[in-house]
Amino acid sequence: MIPAPFDYVRPGDLDGALKILSERQGEAKILSGGYSLLPLMKLRLAQPGLLVDLRDVSGLDHIVEKDDYLSIGARATHRQIHEASVIRDTYLVLHDVTASIGDPQVRNWGTIGGSVAHADPASDWPALLLAGNASIVCRGLSGDPHQLRVGENPAAAADGVRERVLPARGFFLDAFTTAIEPLEVLTEIRFPRRPRGQGGGWQKLERKVGDFATVGVAAVIRLGADGRIEGSGIGDTGVADAPFAATDAEAVLTGNPPSADLFRQAGIAAGEQSRPVADVRGPVDYKRAMVAEMTVRALNTALERARAYA
Fold first, then answer.
1. Residue 21, CA distances (Å) to 50, 181, 198, 247 in order
2. Which among 284, 168, 281, 180 has a CA at the least distance from the CA of 234?
3. 3-class SS at 189?
4. Fewer CB within a 10 Å sphere, N or C end of the chain?
5. pLDDT of 147 above 50
6. Of 84, 124, 306, 89, which Cα lies nearest the Cα of 214?
7. What pLDDT is recorded for position 144?
8. 170 has pLDDT over 70
């Protein structure tokens, strides 16, 4: 349980962090909280030669509602998000998720950016990012401004800093693997601003309080003026190689009036789309059944909140 030797630096700003990543390419790893990375290092499943701690980098812990989206800095801790007034008042599903992450120590120190970048297949945040059609902002030193990468902001590239805004759907590529490039830093998470008639729900099945999810389901639905489901999003965690959007369940929901039977159909579709493996948390059939059940529960919460916010 002792990590391999490594160097450690705490740059004072983001430009300094990006420069260090470039200079120590291939051996540097970003540290943003550390409650996911450090256990892997102790087991020597991860052996970075250098840790670049973002603790002293300012401007990365904001929680601000803008015209079109809710902006959360990558260094915002789970507790900060949980206690933010805009989260408690408007983004209730984020409040739910932050209440279920780990234990108080993890919530006090762990960050949303660290969790999302780490991309554990059973972590909580990715399911909500997928359900809520969130975006992930990454920054790096720019190369040729005329050769832009997917999601890159041309204005930022011209200033010498490359910024990409990546949709959550397509960001989680595999277990512990994301679309972040080696010389980039995840700096911000953006959730679309909550419109009237939209609500979200979160359900997590865990063996004990603070455990990773056996099954985690986030659901978001938006009701139209006629009461039908105008749009929906469902994200699942713990039941595949990577968190995924249950698009088959979304297809069942969209355009139909909400009902218990419709939600059961969506739950069945989500369970069938999941790809769990048998382990100490249960056999495959049990996990698929729990995906279906957690989907129904999350949708019921989402519907209640959507109607209350009409």
1. 9, 11, 40, 36
2. 168
3. strand
4. N
5. no
6. 124
7. 44
8. yes
Q: What is the model's pLDDT at position 145?
A: 45
* Structural domains present in the chain: 7-53 (3.30.43.10), 63-121+132-192 (3.30.465.10), 197-308 (3.30.390.50)
Both structure tokens of 67 = 């015209």
Whether 69 contacts 90, CB under 8 Å: no
Q: Which residues pair with 234 in a beta bridge?
A: 219
Looking at residue 120, its amino acid is D
Pairwise CA distance, residues 40 & 46, whole Å: 5
Tens of pLDDT along 271-310? Answer: 999 999 999 999 999 999 999 999 999 999 999 999 999 9
Confidence bin at 1 (pLDDT 50/70/90): confident
| Chain Cα centroid distance, residue 26 | 25
Buried b (16+ CB within 10 A) or exposed e, 126-153: bbbbbbbbbbbbbbbebeeeeeeeebbb
The CA–CA distances, whole Å, from 175 to 119, 234, 239, 244, 303 equal: 7, 19, 11, 11, 31
Cα of first residue to Cα of last residue in the chain, in angstroms, is: 52
